What does this fold into?
Amino acid sequence: MAPYLLVAPAVAVVLGILGWPLAQLVAISFQRYGLAELIRHRGRWVGLDNYASIVRDPDFWLVALRTTAFTAVTVLATMLIGVGLAFLLRRVRRLVKLLLTVTLVFVWATPVVVGVSMWQWLVDYEFGVVNWVLGRIGVDGFPRHNWFEDPVQGLAVVGAVVVWGAVPFVAITVHAALSQVPEELREAAVIDGASAPQVARLVTLPLIRPVLNLVVVLEIIWNFQVFSQLWIMVGGRPTQDYQLFSVYAYTQSFGISQYGRGAAIAVVMVLALAGLSVVYVRRMLATEATS
Amino acid sequence: MSALPTVGDPAPAPGAAPVQPAVARPAAPLRTAPAGTRRRRQRRRSWAADALGLLATAVLGFPIYWMVSSAFKDGPELLSYTPHWWPHHPTLENFRRALSREWFWTNVGNSLIVVTATVVISLAVALLAAIAVARFDFRGRRAFVACLLAVQMVPLTALIIPLFLMLDGVGLTDRLPGIVLTYLSFVLPFSVWTLRGFVLAVPVELEEAAMLDGCTRVQAWRHVLFPLVAPGLVATAIFAFIQAWNEYVLAYVLLRSPENQTVTVWLASFTTSRGTEWGPLMAAATLTALPVVVFFVIIQRRVVSGLTAGAVKG
Amino acid sequence: MTHRTVRTVRTAAAALALTTVFALAGCGDDDAGSPSAATRPDKLVVWLQPEAEKGWPDLLATVNKAFTSRTGVPVEVQTQQWDSHLAKLDTALTGRTPPDVVELGNTETTKYLAAGAFDDLGPHLGDFENSGTWVQGLKDSCTFDGKVMCVPYYGGSRAVIYNTELFAKAGITTPPTSLDELFADAATLEKTFGSDPAFSAFYLPGKNTKASLAFVIDAGGAIATQDGGTWKGALDSAEARSGLASFKSLVDRFSTADRTGDESKQDATFAKGKIAMMYGLSWEPGAIIDPASGGDPAMKGKIGVFPMPSRTPGKTMPVFLGGSDLAVPANSPNQELARQWIAEYTSTESMTAIAGTGLVPNTTSLLDRTPPEAKPFAEAAQQTFFVPVAPGWATVESKGVLDRLNVSILTGKATIDEATTTASTAITETLNESP
It folds into this structure.
């Protein structure tokens, strides 16, 4: 009985708030739901038409591929940098640690709108500090480098912004997990003759693995859904070669008023994400079983 | 020896048991090494780490520095062909313009109410659920966990209209409780997930030991689990705070009257089709980011240091 | 549970409000203009874009005050953001209490008109002063299937904004009167100042599609043509291509602006004093000297304006007539009041005030009320063009078809022929899709 009582409030809140909207979303994805239908609150059932039209859209497949690649690269980069910083935080002296932590929190606390605008300035074609520095060290001449001419490069810049914004979460969470490892366990291992790397591998890592797995899954979910960073970076005017899934879904819904298709894309996104993260979720549930 | 979390301000809270600062603690302190050697080894290792830490601070912090310094720059200085690394003619004009803009304080107040309610409710509810899924095996546990994850996979923009319709049905649009509810819908699942990880990271043996010593299960949670999960609670609280504090789209769509809006919506009003008021925007952004940093420092010092140090020792 | 409580509270509140209103109505005068007491709402909600608050706050305040004193209904103006206002509008239109008046950009209206989102104003056209002389480009954006469903608000004309100091130094005394002359002047400027790598003789960001389309129209091209019920993209015509070729040549030779960027930064850049000419709207000279948006007050007195010359000597290049319309959502419970408010806000008097800010008023009868410094904008607005009035046009814009056309031409990723064929096909397909 106890576990049910403990989860009951959470279930009530989530179901109470999201139950109906989610059901609506799924229902709309099977309907023709444009602006006129939206105003009258009544769509027309069209079965799998919306899904069929998405699958037939060549853009969809490009978007799917692009989003997957974008997610993979940004998650990897975020994890490497974030976990690195978490370990680093335990090594540095007090003052450096304070500086680094305050910086991390400040980065995190900066509203996305403003943070992205800052980056926009940094990589600006004419006034950007990055171009100025590159020009100074002789990489590029004055007719400066345009970071957004090539979508791969442009998305790389967007990716950098995403990683920059995500690193604090990873670093702080993993650092918290590291501080949670009871020192006694580590000391015991040392007494048993383990070397530092061995302690890390055999004691620390297994204990923080649940947190690591969790962070990876969350990063996959968030980076797959990146919207604001991209939207703001390209001035709210993403051309087709810049579209990621969330922007694609948003354009279909609010740009074109094809709410049925927008909903179908959202459903497909959830399925795709579930597919992408299933490995980690499995692993997570597995760790849980053994603990 | 304590598992004191050491994110941020490492100063022990007043009244707390003296705590050995974890700052320069090597990953595996060698018990057998004489104190002197240990110190030197730490020191040497620290130099490289410190340098790396400073580099990371500089790289990550540069855009923030640029934002803050831009807040003190006057118009023509904001964009310049040769970067002005610091404000050559520092001015408070941008702050004055930002603060004199209508609704600032009201909207900051709204944000604080919304965020506090969201964080408190979701942490309380999530901690219970996290303990349940991490410490019990019950029917439907996996499904519950998987559903919480799946819920976060739904793009928020796709839910705007159904959420609006539902809130409209119960008369909660343009009202702060409505926003708190919608924020709970994404902050709570996240909190359950994160806290679950932190609970799992506490070896269950510690609780079992406490129970062998005569604690009840709830007592074991209170005296053993809770203090050890505290750093996780803090991390989760900060995250929940930031997510709710920075949310824009839902707040913009669901709250209509200017007096009911949150501060992110207010921030967006600096950008118009007639150009963005960059200086005041940067000033305003600096001002709105500050409460989060302050919140972080407070929670760090009061809750974590005091509570865990005391509890573990006691 | 909560649901029922809320309902009960609401009913009680409504009953109370009604009683109060009845009580008040007993002693107030009940003139023809005010709605019957039983239907009088507690406020009229008006959604406007930021221009009003920034450009003519006094007019807005005056209109609202007069409206309230006449009808007894206070007006609440809620300022929206261009970037995301359609998402909010779509959402609000589904609710029980939509705003009573909304503002839309004139390229955004058609799909809403087609969906029946707004009240048909046909029977009430007489209530709006000047409805007989509405500016055609704006009126078109309010008309669908022969029905008028919104009210033109104002338009924005574009012209060349130039740095008078740089012109004088380069020895150019009169503004160019043909496109060839413009190119020649730009070449002179480039020769004089070109050693400065930041100098730009004609600053034109790549995503300025309003500029590229103007070149297309000026060369005799069109965006799309309608034959019967079918649309056909026309950007692949020889005329359109030739227009785009001169657009590209202007950018290639004289612009240092970001070829993938938009116009959002151009005023701050102009304020640096290194741009000789750029293509802008009538409020932009003001933004150049406003320090809050990165401008420089030192530029005061150095800014001139002339209409963009046509390739036909002596004529001006047609301008895209962007602008705004006002509409009453079909499910607003206060349509009568909303119409009255719009009528007052777009009266001859109000429009004279808006024309005084340099914008194009909604009626041709007031076109001469433009202040002297904005005259070239008014002159340019003699010849305007507009995007195809089709529900699918919003889709063309959302997909960024024109942005992509510009960027791929300017960055050399595609030839003009290739890029225009792609764009034109996309336009044909999109406009003919059933909405």
